[in-house]
Specification:
Elements (H helix, E strand, L loop, with lengths): L2 E6 L4 E8 L4 E8 L1 H4 L7 H23 L6 E9 L3 H18 L3 E5 H7 L12 E6 L4 E8 L2 E7 L5 H11 L6 H9 L25 H12 L13 H30 L3 E5 L6 H14 L2 E4 L15 H6 L20
Parallel strand pairs: 1-4, 4-5, 6-9, 9-10
Antiparallel strand pairs: 1-2, 2-3, 6-7, 7-8
Helix pairs in contact: 2-3, 5-6, 5-7, 5-8, 6-8, 7-8, 8-9
Length: about 350
């Protein structure tokens, strides 16, 4: 039985998984850091890196024990090396290199963004490629033409805030706890999505597949506090106002995401859309994207909810590189930046 150990530490989740070549998960462990970042209403890179240092070995040990696989039976050690927070990435890479040397196993670096899309096909009998890949998360809102699992071409992405980042920032304005995205979506369920005509930035610009959410975020801020500086502690909103703002903001973001992704499919001529990342867990987004794809004759593949947020199971992407003989050595380094070219 072919098995590999995958390690994930790109942001604020420390994760490890033992995965077979046919996609079975024999062991998995994820340590979250939400409680460490709550008081800052966002991820603090230095705190995240230090937490990874404390948790990486216990997480790997737990995944290995669950799998009942001996290190000698592993085929390789896979680790996400890009993109992500530099300090967090280095912790995962250092652990992977140490185990590769100690256990005398090959090392395989993987692209975290590509892994999010690969998760859409976990357990599928047929390949999901070629497709338009759409990664929507706290750090990424990016469209790619995916010719194969690791052969991608950049189509467009956010020029400022990512969709998930804007969710979190608006959640702070509404006084919701971190992580704000899921909390805002829950609040939006009781609001009216057409209550406030928030802008849909760049949606009508047919010359680009880029996104922009900073202006939308500012529009929400002006709606809550008015133009100029404000004492946020003195602002009070009724429950209906908060719900309507949340629902209207969420709908504006979803309209942009759905509209641009359908446009990317028309531009490329592809008939399959694969979506991953934390925002892909949003129920309203999933429903409205499915409806749009149905109307356009597009096959939609969205990662299972448990594989939308950062995890090590999607590290099964490493099997694609292993099968191609693309192994790395100890000179492997992290590349925090976003993939924007053919790779």
């Amino acid at each position: 039985m072919r098995c590999l150990l995958a390690i994930e530490s790109t942001c604020d989740e420390t994760a490890a998984a033992v995965i077979t070549r046919d996609g079975r998960v024999l062991g998995e462990c994820i340590a979250t850091q939400e409680e460490l970042h709550q008081q800052f209403s966002g991820v603090v890179p230095e705190i995240a890196a230090r937490a990874h240092l404390e948790r990486i070995l216990p997480v790997i040990d737990t995944a290995m024990k669950q799998s009942a696989i001996a290190p000698s039976d592993l085929e390789a050690i896979a680790v996400a090396t890009h993109p992500g927070l530099p300090g967090s990435l280095l912790v995962g890479l250092a652990a992977a290199k140490g185990l590769a040397v100690a256990w005398q196993k090959p090392l395989v670096g993987i692209n975290h963004v590509q892994a999010h899309i690969y998760a859409c096909g976990m357990g599928a009998r047929e390949s999901i490629f070629p497709c338009v890949g759409f990664v929507v998360s706290g750090g990424h809102t990016t469209l790619y033409q995916c010719n194969a699992a690791t052969d991608w071409e950049y189509l467009g992405g956010t020029i400022d805030d990512a969709a998930g980042e804007s969710f979190d920032k608006v959640a702070v304005m509404l006084g919701l706890p971190f992580p704000g995205g899921p909390q805002l979506a829950k609040l939006a369920e009781t609001g009216r999505s057409d209550a406030i005509p928030f802008p849909r930035p760049m949606l009508d610009d047919h010359s680009t597949l880029n996104f922009s959410f900073s202006g939308l975020k500012t529009a929400v801020r002006y709606r809550i506090a008015g133009v100029g500086k404000a004492d946020w502690g003195s602002i009070t909103l009724s429950s209906d106002e908060r719900s309507d703002i949340a629902a209207s903001f969420q709908q504006a973001v979803i309209d942009c995401l759905v509209g641009k992704s359908i446009r990317a499919l028309k531009q490329t001529g592809l008939k399959r859309l694969c979506v991953g990342g934390g925002v892909a867990a949003n129920q309203l987004f999933r429903v409205q994207l499915q409806n749009a794809c149905d109307r356009s004759g597009i096959e939609l593949k969205i990662a299972p909810r448990e594989l939308c947020t950062d995890n090590a199971v999607m590290g099964a992407l490493a099997w694609e590189r292993i099968d191609l003989g693309e192994l790395d050595d100890l000179s492997l380094d992290v590349k925090p930046g976003l993939l924007r070219q053919k790779h």
